[in-house]
Design goal:
There is one protein chain. This protein has 465 residues and is an alpha/beta fold. Helices cover 42% and strands 14% of the residues. The chain has helices at residues 15-28, 41-48, 52-64, 111-124, 126-132, 142-154, 170-181, 196-204, 221-231, 252-264, 286-289, 317-330, 336-348, 350-373, 397-405, 438-452, and strands spanning 68-71, 75-78, 99-100, 164-167, 187-191, 208-212, 214-215, 218-219, 235-238, 268-272, 294-299, 311-314, 377-379, 386-390, 409-410, 412-413, 427-431. The strands form five sheets. A seven-stranded mixed sheet has the order 4-12-11-10-9-5-6, with helices on both faces. Strand 9, helix 10 and strand 10 (268-272) form a beta-alpha-beta unit. Helix 6 crosses helix 13 (336-348). The longest helix is centred in the last third of the chain and has 24 residues, at 350-373.
């Protein structure tokens, strides 16, 4: 039995929840490790000056969060960091009948012809070819940054090319921001359900990641304010234009409330705007509203092609300088050839045509979503690549994902999106953009509808993400 002396005074709320919070923080900080046996209910109650019932409820809450396991006759043991059991990646392409609705990818299109045409055009520009082979400042080539600024202006945002840093995709942009602005052990916050790639990046940089309460409009200002008072986080991560996984659109009033709280606590916000959103559906970005406090990251992965691996960061001069150092220390600069391709697509007009086609295709796919499972508790947007399905009773997400995959349809379990030990709802994310045709999408969604009309089978193999 480990000699553990938690201090519950640093946590707010009921004592039993404070005990569960203390266990979670102790695991995150390495004070408690997988396999450690916690003190008995009576001994910990005596130590803390609370009732045995309070400790019992606290241990039960920790077990609900998947932090501990209770073994009859043996005691309560630490399970360890739940996120170590999660995997979020793009698998190798395989020939199969699987209808994969698990990944948010651009709608399949004839991008190969566009790329071939662009490469041929680039090859004719000898002056540009020579430039592409040189070393460049970590920010990227100036005319590429000017092209990114035009792209942002098309989407309703004004950006100074000198404040743009070109990256190797959106994930690289987020990781560079963490490395440039934070140090291992710093506390960061996000909504309690968020993008798994960011969860993994925060874990890789050994940050203490706290998931905060959400409502139908996204992160609640009250939860952020309480977190800032209690834990003093260094950075807040948000996706206000289209939240992943819940497909929530944060209203303008809520955005301003969040910015007001951030300003009060001098908190930096990392705004991830990688999702595909047509210009007419955009609200003012957090960066547009408070450029001195917000690091804005985006990429062409959803709007043009994931394989381009071209993204960008916009931030104030002070924040930009710190992130530029992280870029130099990582890879000096992003590969200019791919930025040249993206620039050529923008300058030639191909980018605008491709996004217009994709916008129209998503509208059709959203209609299929509505026709097949629109009667269920589902959240999406008319332009969204994904939807958030809350499962009806008595279904559980783990059971649903397993049984659905046995019928050759794949979706993502809510557990993948839960920050730390945040409770994952009985829900799944469904991506409608990646199937190769509308027909395959319809068949996948009809399979989901048919399955939810039946009773779940509780005897299943353990789930692997």
């Amino acid at each position: 039995m480990i000699d553990w002396h938690p201090n519950l005074d640093r946590f707010s709320g009921p004592k039993y929840k404070a005990l569960a919070d203390a266990i979670e923080v102790a695991i995150t900080e390495g004070e408690l490790s997988s396999g450690d046996r916690l003190p008995t209910h009576r001994s910990l109650a005596d130590q803390l000056g609370v009732t045995i019932g309070t400790v019992t409820r606290g241990y039960a809450e920790a077990e609900r969060r998947r932090l501990v396991t209770a073994r009859v006759g043996s005691g309560t043991f630490i399970l360890g960091k739940v996120w170590e059991k999660r995997d979020f990646s793009v698998p190798e392409p395989q020939e199969s009948d699987l209808i994969d609705l698990s990944l948010s990818l651009p709608v399949p299109a004839r991008r190969e012809q566009i790329l071939a045409k662009s490469l041929a055009s680039i090859a004719e520009e000898w002056e540009h070819l020579s430039t592409l082979l040189d070393y460049h400042p970590e920010t990227g080539i100036a005319r590429h940054r000017e092209s990114m600024a035009r792209w942002m202006r098309y989407h309703g945002m004004e950006a100074d090319p000198d404040k743009i840093l070109i990256t190797s995709g959106g994930q690289n942009a987020n990781m560079l921001t963490l490395q440039g602005l934070l140090r291992p052990g710093d506390i960061i916050a996000s909504e309690h359900l968020t993008y798994p790639g960011f969860i993994n990046a925060a874990r890789q940089w050994q940050l203490r990641h706290m998931g905060l309460a959400m409502d139908q409009h996204g992160l609640t200002p009250q939860a952020l304010d309480q977190c800032c008072h209690q834990f003093k986080p260094r950075l807040l991560y948000l996706m206000p234009n289209l939240q992943n996984p819940t497909a929530t659109l944060m209203p303008l009033g809520r955005r301003q409330e969040i910015l007001d709280v951030a300003a009060l606590h001098k908190l930096v916000i990392l705004e991830d705007d990688v999702q595909f959103i047509p210009p007419e559906n955009r609200l003012p970005s957090l960066y547009s509203l408070a450029p001195e406090r917000v690091v804005y990251t985006s990429s062409f992965s959803k709007s043009l092609a994931g394989g381009l691996r071209v993204g960008f960061i916009c931030s104030s001069d002070d924040l930009n300088q710190k992130i530029r150092i992280a870029m130099r220390n990582n890879c000096w600069s992003a590969p200019p050839l791919m930025s040249e391709v993206a620039t050529e697509w923008i300058d030639s007009g191909e980018a605008w045509q491709l996004t217009a086609w994709q916008r129209e295709e998503i509208l059709h796919r959203q209609q299929i979503l509505k026709e097949t499972i629109g009667h269920l508790d589902i959240q999406s947007q008319p332009y969204s690549f994904h939807a958030w399905l809350k499962l009806p009773e008595p279904w559980r997400a783990e059971t649903f994902v397993q049984q659905l995959e046995s019928k050759n349809v794949k979706v993502l379990h809510s557990e993948v999106f839960a920050v730390g030990s945040s409770a994952a709802p009985q829900a799944v994310r469904i991506c409608i953009s990646s199937p190769s045709s509308r027909d395959r999408l319809r068949r996948g969604l009809e399979t989901i509808s048919d399955m939810l009309a039946s009773d779940p089978n509780p005897i299943l193999r353990p789930i692997v993400f």
